[in-house]
Amino acid sequence: MSWFEKLMPSRIRTEGTARGKSVPEGLWTKCDACAAVLYRPELERNLEVCPKCDAHMRIGARRRLAVFLDAGDQVELGADLQPDDVLKFKDSKRYRDRLVQAQKATGERDALVAMSGHLHGLPVVAAAFEFQFMGGSMGAVVGERFVRAVNAAIEKKAPLVSFSASGGARMQEALFSLLQMAKTSAALGRLREAHLPFVSVLTDPTMGGVSASLAMLGDVVVAEPGALIGFAGPRVIEQTVRETLPAGFQRSEFLLEHGAIDLIIDRRQQRARLASLLAILTQAESPVVGVG
Amino acid sequence: MASADLDFLEFERPIAELEAKIEELRYVGDDSEVSIGEEVARLQAKSRQLTEQIFRNLSSWQISQLARHPRRPYAADYIAAMFTDFEELHGDRAYADDAAMIGGVARFKGRPVMVIGEQKGRGTREKIERNFGMPRPEGYRKAARLMEMAERFGLPIMTFIDTPGAYPGVGAEERGQSEAIASNLMQMAGLNTPVLCTVIGEGGSGGALAIGVGDRLLMLQYSTYSVISPEGCASILWKSAERAAEAAEAMGITAERLAELGLVDEVIAEPLGGAHRDWDETAKRLSDSLSRHLADVEALDLEAMRAARYERLMAIGHFRE
């Protein structure tokens, strides 16, 4: 052992023989925003927010709901729903194969997970898009699960919270997917008639048909910092207007400045601040919330 | 003939050529002693036959070209043909008047109604003014304002869909294109007045749906309705816009296919050769269909009508459970 290795603290010392055994694959990751090398378990504890620069990375739907809702009494809604390829859609690949691949990769049956539970003791229903499942695209299962979440909220007389992360409608379900925009929006109309609040949280990215329906219909529309949010994708717009887009265009901060959203909330504060907000809108006692 | 080339599609060329010949003969016939009436009649019969033959087996891609045909009647043309006392109302009361979206009060067979439609332009200047039929948020907000007013005054609403899509521009994004579309969807689903929607040409995605939620969805025979344009779909899924014909087929964007899928209430047959060959006849058929559907919808009381509209929406989409 050289003098330098002796000086090195043992926790960061890597012995030639132990390497590969004690350090599992992917224990380190890099932040796309600030390029900092991050320790994976720490990043996870920090809800996939970079501890160095606060960049909000994407987080899986199931994990998001698990950390957002109170532990212990989360009940999944519409878990058994499965996509059905009635159009037998085939592009360069068959839709059926794409579905199987997405299901294997994510462990989900489709791109939306909905749960009924509590938030700091307040009964709520929450839904989250799984972006890793075909870009979080909205097809019939996503639409139906969302509607069931709305119905559960009405039944429980509870508020609804949704976390969008989607490229838009699912092309492989063609017009059926477009019409899910109308279906989900109509259901939200019922929620509104029932005087129950809907908080829509826009996360990276919220585009196209999802942005132009349920995502923008929140009584309160919240965004995570730095999320890409818009109707048309930046590339489409660039091709249409033939000019470079301004810096920060279609990012959360840009939307806030243009009056399109109510506020931007850091992921690590969402539990506390949304609980407090929902308690006000439902005329409930102020919940006892700690940090996170 | 170069200028006329813009006025017919590639697969219409044989018909156009034959008809040019008939016109020529007619012109000659005016000051000729030779009777050419028989020859004209013969050519006309041949033209009809040719048209029938060509239109019997149109591909989805050909139909989407017909839906965008430069001579196809637009919303304003149907309004002029089917309604009386039309008074166009302008503006969203907040930002601008969007010429890609027109609307106003009118009478339909004597009955007061609200009419809303997406409007393309003819000729370069009007096309630009109408932004090629691609509404901006202020267009959707104008429509929302008119629909709210219609509800207040008990006017049934008739919408005419014809757009490549909502405009993808910087200003449109800044002014909340998504929100404008989304709020129309929610509003229309809950309107306390009959809403009849007709796709007359291109039903381009969210931009079409934003005036397309109602008690009935009708489509003209050669109109299309899709989640994304065939070109857009092809460039994303096939990585090449050249594959648009395949994308059009795969998505099932034609009126006939969408009716088979149970998404359309009625397909209105167009005159031989398409709506652009006979505007008046097309308008007459559409008008008849609309009055039938309006009577059916109005047979329900408002509450039942709204409930039925909601159930229709909730039933859309296939899944296994």
UniProtKB/TrEMBL annotation, chain A:
<protein>
    <recommendedName>
        <fullName>Acetyl-coenzyme A carboxylase carboxyl transferase subunit beta</fullName>
        <ecNumber>2.1.3.15</ecNumber>
    </recommendedName>
</protein>
<keyword id="KW-0547">Nucleotide-binding</keyword>
<keyword id="KW-0436">Ligase</keyword>
<keyword id="KW-0808">Transferase</keyword>
<comment type="function">
    <text>Component of the acetyl coenzyme A carboxylase (ACC) complex. Biotin carboxylase (BC) catalyzes the carboxylation of biotin on its carrier protein (BCCP) and then the CO(2) group is transferred by the transcarboxylase to acetyl-CoA to form malonyl-CoA.</text>
</comment>
<feature type="binding site">
    <location>
        <position position="53"/>
    </location>
    <ligand>
        <name>Zn(2+)</name>
    </ligand>
</feature>
<dbReference type="Pfam" id="PF17848">
    <property type="entry name" value="Zn_ribbon_ACC"/>
</dbReference>
<dbReference type="InterPro" id="IPR029045">
    <property type="entry name" value="ClpP/crotonase-like_dom_sf"/>
</dbReference>
<keyword id="KW-0067">ATP-binding</keyword>
<feature type="binding site">
    <location>
        <position position="50"/>
    </location>
    <ligand>
        <name>Zn(2+)</name>
    </ligand>
</feature>
<dbReference type="GO" id="GO:0009329">
    <property type="term" value="C:acetate CoA-transferase complex"/>
</dbReference>
<comment type="pathway">
    <text>Lipid metabolism; malonyl-CoA biosynthesis; malonyl-CoA from acetyl-CoA: step 1/1.</text>
</comment>
<dbReference type="InterPro" id="IPR000438">
    <property type="entry name" value="Acetyl_CoA_COase_Trfase_b_su"/>
</dbReference>
<keyword id="KW-0443">Lipid metabolism</keyword>
<dbReference type="Pfam" id="PF01039">
    <property type="entry name" value="Carboxyl_trans"/>
</dbReference>
<dbReference type="InterPro" id="IPR041010">
    <property type="entry name" value="Znf-ACC"/>
</dbReference>
<comment type="similarity">
    <text>Belongs to the AccD/PCCB family.</text>
</comment>
<keyword id="KW-0275">Fatty acid biosynthesis</keyword>
<keyword id="KW-0479">Metal-binding</keyword>
<keyword id="KW-0276">Fatty acid metabolism</keyword>
<dbReference type="InterPro" id="IPR011762">
    <property type="entry name" value="COA_CT_N"/>
</dbReference>
<comment type="subunit">
    <text>Acetyl-CoA carboxylase is a heterohexamer composed of biotin carboxyl carrier protein (AccB), biotin carboxylase (AccC) and two subunits each of ACCase subunit alpha (AccA) and ACCase subunit beta (AccD).</text>
</comment>
From TrEMBL, chain B:
<comment type="subunit">
    <text>Acetyl-CoA carboxylase is a heterohexamer composed of biotin carboxyl carrier protein (AccB), biotin carboxylase (AccC) and two subunits each of ACCase subunit alpha (AccA) and ACCase subunit beta (AccD).</text>
</comment>
<comment type="function">
    <text>Component of the acetyl coenzyme A carboxylase (ACC) complex. First, biotin carboxylase catalyzes the carboxylation of biotin on its carrier protein (BCCP) and then the CO(2) group is transferred by the carboxyltransferase to acetyl-CoA to form malonyl-CoA.</text>
</comment>
<dbReference type="InterPro" id="IPR011763">
    <property type="entry name" value="COA_CT_C"/>
</dbReference>
<keyword id="KW-0444">Lipid biosynthesis</keyword>
<dbReference type="GO" id="GO:2001295">
    <property type="term" value="P:malonyl-CoA biosynthetic process"/>
</dbReference>
<dbReference type="GO" id="GO:0005524">
    <property type="term" value="F:ATP binding"/>
</dbReference>
<comment type="similarity">
    <text>Belongs to the AccA family.</text>
</comment>
<protein>
    <recommendedName>
        <fullName>Acetyl-coenzyme A carboxylase carboxyl transferase subunit alpha</fullName>
        <ecNumber>2.1.3.15</ecNumber>
    </recommendedName>
</protein>
<keyword id="KW-0443">Lipid metabolism</keyword>
<keyword id="KW-0275">Fatty acid biosynthesis</keyword>
<dbReference type="GO" id="GO:0006633">
    <property type="term" value="P:fatty acid biosynthetic process"/>
</dbReference>
<dbReference type="Pfam" id="PF03255">
    <property type="entry name" value="ACCA"/>
</dbReference>
<dbReference type="GO" id="GO:0003989">
    <property type="term" value="F:acetyl-CoA carboxylase activity"/>
</dbReference>
<feature type="domain" description="CoA carboxyltransferase C-terminal">
    <location>
        <begin position="42"/>
        <end position="296"/>
    </location>
</feature>
<dbReference type="GO" id="GO:0016743">
    <property type="term" value="F:carboxyl- or carbamoyltransferase activity"/>
</dbReference>
<keyword id="KW-0547">Nucleotide-binding</keyword>
<dbReference type="GO" id="GO:0009317">
    <property type="term" value="C:acetyl-CoA carboxylase complex"/>
</dbReference>
<keyword id="KW-0808">Transferase</keyword>
<comment type="pathway">
    <text>Lipid metabolism; malonyl-CoA biosynthesis; malonyl-CoA from acetyl-CoA: step 1/1.</text>
</comment>
<keyword id="KW-0276">Fatty acid metabolism</keyword>
<dbReference type="InterPro" id="IPR029045">
    <property type="entry name" value="ClpP/crotonase-like_dom_sf"/>
</dbReference>
<keyword id="KW-0436">Ligase</keyword>
